[in-house]
């Protein structure tokens, strides 16, 4: 990518999957094959760049609006390979072939890679080799993309390991109570909860759905999509006055960890969070209702889970008025931190 006819560049790193956690070090080697004997360079260097990308709409009067692509660097580490200040060992082969070893440490607090490099919005990381030539000629550049995730230890937020109760009542006096054993999980772990429904009017409950949604915000651009959805078994076409069932749902393993990142520029804002959406489908018009349960997905195992669960559960109740029984899915859902702060 970006090579010209006078040189060929490759970057090889120490991991075939190109995946790193923040706080680790990227080791690799840069190989350069120069075919132009008269190629003059001021410096050759490699850098690791973290960049967010998002779009904005601009108006151009009679021509209507058009979309601008914005890119902002939030992370930059440079290592000189050849030039006035050489920082890496240089290997010279015959026929103009060169090679340099490099290592670039990652800081601890970095947002995760989001979306593909050619899509917006996105968070991306890449290694870039630059051959800085004379001022009157174009530089030669070559990129290699990496995937970087932060480490998220659930023990740093012990409140997410407490049991939590969510309650709601719709306008037909149907009361829903969902009790979760905790709200912090790692990938591949099971979400365990009890669903209890009080139905004094014996209205037909058609079924209940559970969805896990991934939500992310980059700058001011928000998006969410469903990563898992199922109809809960045993709660189908029931008119019982009292229903109580226990469930265990496995979290899909290939997801981003929950994370919030702010850079020096106010536009550098990245937020990844998740929520469980429990929906109860009830016979009749405007009787359906749902509750949102914010959860945290971490990367580190929790060794003190049994001890954490000995505390009293947190209880969250929703108002039972008619207006709140019909939620607007266009509203941004609260994340875990917002819900927990509201209880303090």
From TrEMBL:
UniProt superkingdom: Eukaryota
One CC-aspect GO term: cytoplasm
Matching Pfam families: Arrestin_C (PF02752), Arrestin_N (PF00339)
Record InterPro entries: Arrestin-like_C (IPR014752), Arrestin-like_N (IPR011021), Arrestin_C-like (IPR011022), Arrestin_domain-protein (IPR050357), Ig_E-set (IPR014756)
Domain Arrestin C-terminal-like as annotated: residue spans: 170-302
Gene3D superfamilies assigned to the protein according to its UniProt record, in alphabetical order: 2.60.40.640
Gene Ontology process terms (BP): protein transport
Residue stretches in coiled coil: none
PANTHER family named among the record's database cross-references: ARRESTIN DOMAIN CONTAINING PROTEIN, FI21816P1
UniProt record similarity statement: Belongs to the arrestin family.
Record-given protein name: Arrestin C-terminal-like domain-containing protein
Species of provenance: Rotaria sordida
Lineage, top ranks: Eukaryota, Metazoa, Spiralia, Gnathifera, Rotifera
């Amino acid at each position: 990518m970006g090579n010209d006819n006078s040189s060929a560049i490759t970057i090889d790193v120490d991991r075939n999957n190109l995946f790193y956690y923040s706080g680790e070090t990227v080791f690799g080697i840069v190989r350069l094959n120069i075919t132009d004997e008269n190629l003059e360079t001021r410096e050759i260097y490699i850098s690791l760049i973290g960049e967010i990308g998002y779009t904005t709409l601009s108006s151009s009067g009679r021509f209507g609006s058009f979309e601008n692509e914005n890119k902002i660097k939030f992370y930059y580490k440079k290592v000189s390979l050849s030039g006035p200040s050489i920082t890496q060992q240089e290997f010279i082969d015959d026929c103009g072939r060169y090679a340099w070893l490099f290592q670039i440490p990652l800081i601890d607090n970095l947002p995760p890679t989001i979306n593909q490099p050619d899509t917006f919005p996105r968070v991306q990381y890449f290694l870039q080799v630059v051959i800085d030539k004379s001022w009157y000629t174009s530089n030669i550049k070559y990129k290699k993309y990496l995937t970087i995730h932060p480490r998220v230890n659930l023990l740093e937020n012990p409140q997410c390991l407490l049991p939590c109760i969510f309650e709601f009542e719709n306008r037909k006096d149907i009361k829903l109570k969902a009790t979760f054993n905790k709200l912090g999980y790692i990938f591949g772990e099971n979400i365990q909860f009890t669903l209890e429904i009080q139905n004094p009017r014996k209205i037909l409950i058609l079924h209940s759905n559970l969805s896990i949604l991934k939500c992310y915000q980059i700058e001011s651009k928000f998006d969410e999509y469903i990563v898992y959805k199922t109809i809960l078994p045993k709660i189908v076409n029931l008119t019982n006055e009292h229903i109580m069932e226990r469930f265990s749902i496995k979290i899909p393993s290939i997801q981003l960890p929950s994370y919030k990142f702010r850079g020096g520029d106010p536009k550098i804002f990245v937020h990844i969070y998740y929520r469980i959406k429990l929906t109860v489908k009830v016979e009749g018009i405007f009787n359906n209702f749902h509750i949102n349960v914010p959860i945290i997905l971490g990367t580190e195992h929790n060794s003190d889970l049994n001890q954490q669960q000995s505390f009293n559960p947190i209880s969250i109740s929703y108002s039972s008025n008619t207006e709140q029984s019909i939620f607007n899915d266009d509203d941004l859902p609260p994340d875990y931190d917002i819900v927990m702060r509201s209880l303090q």
